[in-house]
């Protein structure tokens, strides 16, 4: 079953590579409970098939990074990029994209959260196994308020401009 507008985010965890140790987070990969992390926040989430893949690296993630201030001006507390990659890959990709401190690069290494959303996709024919569909969503206090899922390899509705227009 695919998540829809009005649904609460499913139970799950995501991992993020933390480069600077804080009281709350150790250096390196940290695992976060999605429900706890989303509590009381307005979050722009975008999901994509993979770090370092062409559309993801050239258009999808850079758009959210470039327009982060506009999202925050509209009341967004955090921006999450979720991909079926491990926290190390997401951390390295985030550093290359200058996303540190702007977009949280969240790894879903085993695709468990992506599958719970019902937004997984079979990329085996490309040698990539289970991945995420390309999507964006607006989440308020854990509840999906907007959801934009791309159809078959397209990049038309999950871009930052579409989500900005929906907030």
Show the helix and strand layout:
Layout: E1 13-18, E2 28-33, H1 34-38, E3 42-48, H2 54-66, H3 68-73, E4 78-83, H4 87-96, E5 104-107, H5 112-117, E6 120-122, E7 130-132, E8 135-140, E9 143-149, H6 160-166
Parallel strand pairs: 3-4, 4-5
Antiparallel strand pairs: 1-2, 1-5, 3-8, 6-7, 8-9
What does the model show?
- By secondary structure, the protein is of the alpha+beta class.
- The chain has one domain: Glutaredoxin.
- It has 6 helices and 9 strands; from the N terminus they run E-E-H-E-H-H-E-H-E-H-E-E-E-E-H.
- The chain has helices at 34-38, 54-66, 68-73, 87-96, 112-117, 160-166; strands at residues 13-18, 28-33, 42-48, 78-83, 104-107, 120-122, 130-132, 135-140, 143-149.
- A hairpin with a 2-residue loop joins strand 8 (135-140) and strand 9 (143-149).
- The two termini are 25 Å apart.
- The model has no long low-confidence stretch (mean pLDDT 90).
What share of residues is helical?
Answer: 25-40%
Q: What does the largest sheet look like?
A: 7 strands, mixed
Structure class: alpha+beta
**How many individual helices?**
6
| Mean pLDDT reading | 90
Number of domains: 1
The CATH topology annotation reads as Glutaredoxin
How large is the radius of gyration?
Answer: 14 Å
Q: Specify the overall morphology.
A: globular
CATH superfamily label: Glutaredoxin
For the largest beta sheet, what order do the strands appear in spatially? 2-1-5-4-3-8-9
Question: How many β-strand runs?
Answer: 9
Q: Beta-sheet strand percentage?
A: 25-35%
**Name of the top-level CATH class:** Alpha Beta
- What is the chain-wise order of helices and strands? EEHEHHEHEHEEEEH
Q: Assign the CATH architecture.
A: 3-Layer(aba) Sandwich
In terms of per-residue confidence, which ranges show pLDDT below 50 for 5 or more consecutive residues? none
Catalytic activity: a hydroperoxide + 2 glutathione = an alcohol + glutathione disulfide + H2O
GO biological process, one term: cellular response to oxidative stress
Family: Belongs to the peroxiredoxin family. Prx5 subfamily.
InterPro entries: PRX5-like, Redoxin, Thioredoxin-like_sf, Thioredoxin_domain
């Amino acid at each position: 079953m695919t998540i829809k507008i009005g649904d609460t985010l499913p139970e799950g965890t995501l991992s993020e590579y933390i480069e600077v140790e804080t009281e709350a987070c150790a250096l390196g990969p940290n695992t976060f409970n999605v429900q706890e992390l989303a509590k009381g926040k307005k979050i722009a989430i975008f999901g994509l098939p993979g770090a370092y893949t062409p559309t993801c690296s050239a258009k999808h993630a850079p758009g959210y990074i470039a327009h982060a201030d506009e999202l925050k001006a509209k009341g967004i507390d955090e921006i999450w990029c979720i991909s079926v990659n491990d926290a190390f890959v997401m951390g390295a990709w985030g550093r290359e994209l200058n996303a540190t401190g702007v977009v949280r690069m969240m790894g879903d290494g085993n695709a468990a959260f992506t599958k719970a959303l019902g937004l997984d996709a079979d990329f085996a024919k490309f040698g990539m196994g289970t991945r995420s569909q390309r999507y964006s969503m607006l989440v308020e206090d854990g509840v999906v308020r907007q959801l934009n899922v791309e159809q078959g390899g397209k990049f038309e509705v999950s871009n930052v401009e579409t989500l900005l227009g929906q907030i």
